Description:
Blueprint: H1 2-14, H2 53-61, H3 68-91, H4 98-111, E1 115-116, E2 131-134, E3 137-139, E4 153-162, E5 165-174, H5 180-198, H6 207-219, E6 223-224, E7 230-232, E8 239-243, E9 259-262, E10 265-267, E11 273-275, E12 283-285, E13 291-293, E14 296-300, E15 305-307
Antiparallel strand pairs: 1-4, 2-4, 3-12, 4-5, 6-10, 7-8, 9-14, 10-13, 11-12, 14-15
This protein binds 2-amino-4-trifluoromethylsulfanyl-butyric acid and cobalt (II) ion (CO) (2 copies).
Amino acid sequence: xxxxxxxxxxxxxxxxxxxxxxxxxxxxxxxxxxxxxxxxxxxxxxxxxxxxxxxxxxxxxxxxxxxxxxxxxxxxxxxxxxxxxxxxxxxxxxxxxxxxxxxxxxxxxxxxxxxxxxxxxxxxxxxxxxxxxxxxxxxxxxxxxxxxxxxxxxxxxxxxxxxxxxxxxxxxxxxxxxxxxxxxxxxxxxxxxxxxxxxxxxxxxxxxxxxxxxxxxxxxxxxxxxxxxxxxxxxxxxxxxxxxxxxxxxxxxxxxxxxxxxxxxxxxxxxxxxxxxxxxxxxxxxxxxxxxxxxxxxxxxxxxxxxxxxxxx
Length: 313
Ligand code: MF3
Ligand code: CO
Ligand code: CO
């Protein structure tokens, strides 16, 4: 059946108006073989290409469902990203600059035979190897020579390329004593991430992620950033689909082999982000109130999900 349909589809594509297998075979305008008295093309003619689900997802959404070899590669890249992230977070203390964190993380990439994906990424090219986003910075903070101070909250975001595969993850670090508003965004964003991961399984609408996150965040006096999203990841840095962290109307259904990030950016005040007009990267809250974010790379499996980035809070 599968092969028959595949052949029909290919042939029809090649010859769409006058499609016949051979003079002896049934034609599109002949009566259907089933006795319905309808033309074959209006009845049992195979209209839909019986493409596999991977082809369908790629054709409809641009989503690459990964095969076992690709999954193995992405898993290793995610493990490395998590290890680099853990070590870099341990180094984040009062008095240490984010540039020092960057240089340390950069060295860890090279020692592992990996490449830091952010360096030179995008336009204008991102200038550093990791992102470090402090306090009111929502995401894409650029490491610099300002030392971390007690009371800061900092997101460290590591994306590595290992053997051509991408792994992407981030965590928050609290420096010294942190006020209650900052503690709230740090804890709420973590809960948003973990609760949205807990529901993941094939058949679930992608939009359930945003539902879960927005409901939890708003119930805890926080807002959800909508100008930045999670994303497919693995073969490239940012692949389809966009993973919205707010309520949305995406019709995409989770399927085994999907690899994507969830990385909710949660604000203590208003949700709007303002991009720095000088560097075109650093995104800050419009009201200067704190923001926090945690990120995992996930795989949808036949039975549920796997967290590919292995870091634990
Ligand atoms: N790692 C970020 C993400 O989670 C993207 C950083 S892009 C960069 O998608 F260029 F700023 F590094
Ligand atoms: Co990401
Ligand atoms: Co990231």
